[in-house]
Amino acid sequence: MSRFSCYHFSIITFLSFVLVVFLHGVTAATFTFVNKCDYTVWPGILANPGSPTLESTGFELRNGGSRSFQAPTGWAGRFWGRTGCSFDDSGHGSCTTGDCDSGEIECNGAGATPPATLAEFTLGSGSQDFYDVSLVDGYNLPMIVEGNGGSGECATTGCMTDLNKKCPSELKFDGGDACKSACDAFGNPEYCCSGAYSSPTACKPSIYSEVFKSACPKSYSYAFDDATSTFTCTGADYTITFCPNSPSLKSSKDPAAESTGESGPDTDSVQAAALASQWLANLATADSTRTQLYSPAQFGFSVIIFLFL
């Protein structure tokens, strides 16, 4: 091979390497959905305006199944689970709870019809991610969010309680398959934090939001429930689990127990032991394994070094 050919080959190899690193670097986080329910769940995905659509906007997740998606840096959006769905061979149909009214398995840019348990994310661009589980639009199934491999508090959040069993009769949806929010059920401004009640000082917890908060203390129970309901983590991947039957021992750094809504010393002691183990396991967890953006400055520096060589 001639000297020119070797030089040409080296340039192509170098540029190919840089391209691979650059394309890989735009991945901010991996979201993994896990279904521990004893029935099939159809997760829905909605990207916020300005955020790109992920690989899917809705899919089937059978009992015991999992599926992962990669999201770019700065991505923001929400996830939820649809239940009681019926789709034909062409993928057309509807769901009993959480339906996005697209008439298809894919939600195609449509959000969840309340009531639905929501997981909401805003991924940072080299900074903190913000995430929460919200019952502001009501509740349809248990869900938790766990951060894996991140730095910071990275607490597990969500609702492990079957709130449908505790739902006040006036909030029950479709015979008890889900639980409405007071806003959705009654439409009053004081429940919706709207109109004269559209500020944190004016809109306070209601007797109905307190039911949600008591059962699920780490979840949003009404619009201004920020202080105890928003969580942060830097450089993590996230697992969204439907119907979690016990706390995961993977990644939460929060030693506080998540209320399950169940009573009795046996349940409490089991949860406390599991969460203590979870906290200890995280002392050895490394910082983020997710890749960061390969910046233009880094690219330029690499090219300069290469040319000098």
Rg calc = 22 Å
Please indicate the percent range of residues in DSSP E strands (runs of 2 or more). Answer: 15-25%
The percent range for helix content is 10-25%
Look up the CATH topology of the largest domain.
Thaumatin
- Write down the secondary-structure element order: HEEEEEEEEEEEEHHHEEHH
Shape: globular
Poorly predicted segments: 4-25, 246-309
Q: What is the CATH superfamily label of the largest domain?
A: Thaumatin
End-to-end Cα distance, whole Å, is 20 Å
Question: What is the domain total for the residues?
Answer: 2
Top CATH class of the largest domain: Mainly Beta
Helix/strand/pairing category: alpha+beta
Please, what is the average pLDDT?
Answer: 80
Strand order of the largest sheet: 3-1-14-9-10
Count every beta strand, where a strand is a DSSP E run of 2 or more residues: 14
The count of helical stretches stands at: 6
Secondary-structure arrangement, i.e. CATH architecture of the largest domain? Sandwich
Characterize the quaternary organization of these chains: single chain
The largest sheet is:
5 strands, mixed
